[in-house]
TrEMBL record:
Role summary: Catalyzes the hydrolysis of UDP-3-O-myristoyl-N-acetylglucosamine to form UDP-3-O-myristoylglucosamine and acetate, the committed step in lipid A biosynthesis. Involved in unsaturated fatty acids biosynthesis. Catalyzes the dehydration of short chain beta-hydroxyacyl-ACPs and long chain saturated and unsaturated beta-hydroxyacyl-ACPs.
Name the UniProt record assigns to this protein: Multifunctional fusion protein
Keywords, in A-Z order: Cytoplasm, Hydrolase, Lipid A biosynthesis, Lipid biosynthesis, Lipid metabolism, Lyase, Metal-binding, Zinc
UniProt-listed Enzyme Commission number(s): 4.2.1.59, 3.5.1.108
Source organism: Flammeovirga kamogawensis
Names of required cofactors: Zn(2+)
Pfam families on file: FabA (PF07977), LpxC (PF03331)
Reactions it catalyzes: a UDP-3-O-[(3R)-3-hydroxyacyl]-N-acetyl-alpha-D-glucosamine + H2O = a UDP-3-O-[(3R)-3-hydroxyacyl]-alpha-D-glucosamine + acetate; a (3R)-hydroxyacyl-[ACP] = a (2E)-enoyl-[ACP] + H2O
InterPro entries named in the record: FabA_FabZ (IPR013114), FabZ (IPR010084), HotDog_dom_sf (IPR029069), Ribosomal_Su5_D2-typ_SF (IPR020568), UDP-acyl_GlcNac_deAcase (IPR004463), UDP-acyl_GlcNac_deAcase_C (IPR011334), UDP-acyl_N-AcGlcN_deAcase_N (IPR015870)
Location relative to the cell: Cytoplasm
Length: 464
């Protein structure tokens, strides 16, 4: 999986009709800055309102996933979002001049091809993964739906569907590597049963549906008269049933194409959690309603974890700044270089790491028989981490110094000893004004807060 955020290199446009509304629309994917996420913009509505791709904005899951914000609605978003997640794209603005993305040929492949044509580019920020911390379970007894998310340092999905149909039977699909989405899942088309077609028409849905953008499964004997009526309904010369039980001799792209499409839908629906996921997803008989309910459960856990405010540190991820890059930014040298790496940085916060070893110079004289890292040096480590955040806010940071001008509300909550790894987060309390930065610093060992303080720093140009 990508560790850095990605966007697309250039705008790209797709056009078509929506499967349910039947409305024509033009959709333009646009590059977006880091931490932008996925957003739709209804350019056909006054004020061109933005609709965030967020599970809290879901308003309908009857035959697709529909989101709405401030009166602006976008129908059937799951195939578009699946394409973005499948290509590991993080930041895109999607401008659309109608109520629903085009169905194209019923899968995500046309979106994937359009996005791959312009290409993706890496951005400077690390991806903000939601790592499933524990087993999360969802169940609907009446529909025999079961979904689970388990901790995993990757993103994998397995789906089982069973429609009690002699044509489809029980099917499974798995995506063990998100990099395989484009080749293994993206081309899998939406499907429905023949007996559902009339009901969907009566419900004022599938206005843009036809036998070119959906698989219609025939799981019962159909008269010639019924087939002729369907031909008239969809304005076709004739309609036939293939040996596989599929209308109009449509060739399946995969033997388990329906199961793969259900997996595709789940990838798109779970994008509404709002962050890329690390976890193993196992689903039996999923659908949009269950996917969205499960996404809400994941988001609730994600927000709960975020409220704990414990920064995470993955030793396998490459740092944003390593020791050599930190040396170029900070003037500190041995034995006062107290930051080993920067793992994450935005315009509002920074996360740094200090590995505490028995070879530290200060352990020689500071409680040598019971080595403890001096509290003042923990504050210094937080100050150096915060200094990188402040320097990151200016052009040509090598031309500036950062100085401590105040420390308040300092608390030492737990001893730091050799073998500990300090994970330090410094977050701006208010915007930097006139070179003065005020930030809250917190240092953790594991999930335990060991030191915290409010720090004020001054940004000074070297020639001053």
């Amino acid at each position: 999986m990508y560790t850095k955020q990605h966007t697309i290199k250039a705008p790209v446009t797709v056009e078509g009709v929506g499967i349910h509304t039947g409305a024509k629309s033009k959709m333009v994917f646009l590059p977006a800055d880091v931490n932008h996420g996925f957003k739709f913009q209804r350019v056909d509505i006054e004020g061109q309102p933005i609709v965030d791709c967020d599970v809290d904005n879901v308003v309908d899951v009857s035959r697709g996933t529909t989101i709405e914000q401030d009166g602006a609605r976008v129908n059937t978003v799951e195939h578009v979002l699946a394409a973005l997640v499948g290509l590991q794209i993080d930041n895109v603005l999607i401008q659309i001049d109608g109520p629903e993305p085009p169905i194209m040929e019923g899968s995500s492949i046309k979106f994937v091809e359009a996005l791959m044509e312009v290409g993706v580019e890496e951005q400077s920020m690390l991806r903000n993964f939601f790592e499933v911390p524990e087993g999360v379970f969802y169940k609907e007894d009446d529909r025999k739906v079961e979904i689970a998310a388990l901790p995993l340092n990757d993103y994998r999905l397995t789906v089982m569907v069973d429609y009690n149909s002699p044509v489809l039977g029980s099917q499974h699909a798995a995506l063990n590597d998100i990099a395989d989405f484009a080749s293994e899942v993206a081309s899998s088309r939406t499907f429905c049963f023949l007996h559902e077609v009339e009901a969907l028409r009566k419900a004022n849905l599938i206005k843009g549906g036809n036998f070119n953008n959906a698989i219609v499964v025939v799981d019962q004997v159909v008269s010639k008269e019924t087939l002729d009526e369907l031909a008239d309904l969809f304005e076709l010369p004739s309609v036939e049933v293939a040996e596989e039980g599929i209308l109009n001799n449509v060739k399946l792209r995969h033997p388990n194409e329906p199961a793969r499409h259900k997996l595709l839908d789940m990838v798109g629906d779970l994008a509404l959690v709002g962050r890329p996921i690390k976890g193993q997803i196992l689903a039996a008989r999923p659908g949009h309603a269950a996917n969205v309910a499960f996404a809400r459960k994941l988001k609730s856990l994600m927000l709960k974890s975020a409220r704990k405010n414990v920064p995470t540190y993955d030793i396998h991820q490459p740092p944003v700044y390593d020791v050599n890059q930190i040396e170029e930014m900070l003037p500190h040298r041995y034995p006062f270089r107290l930051v080993d790496k920067i793992t994450e940085i935005t315009d509002k916060y920074v996360i740094g790491v200090k590995n505490v070893t028995i070879n530290e110079e200060f352990f020689v004289g500071h409680f040598p028989s019971n080595p403890v890292m001096p509290g003042v040096l923990q504050i210094e480590a937080m100050g150096q981490t915060g200094g990188i955040l402040v320097l990151n806010s200016v052009d040509n940071p090598e031309n500036y110094w950062t100085y401590f001008v105040g420390v308040e509300e300092c608390k030492f909550r737990k001893m730091v000893v050799p073998g500990d790894t300090l994970v330090i987060k410094c977050e701006l309390i208010q915007p930097i004004r006139r070179g003065i930065a005020k930030m809250k610093g917190q240092a953790y060992v594991g999930d335990k807060l060991v030191t915290e303080a409010i720090m004020t720093a001054s940004l000074v140009k070297k020639d001053n």
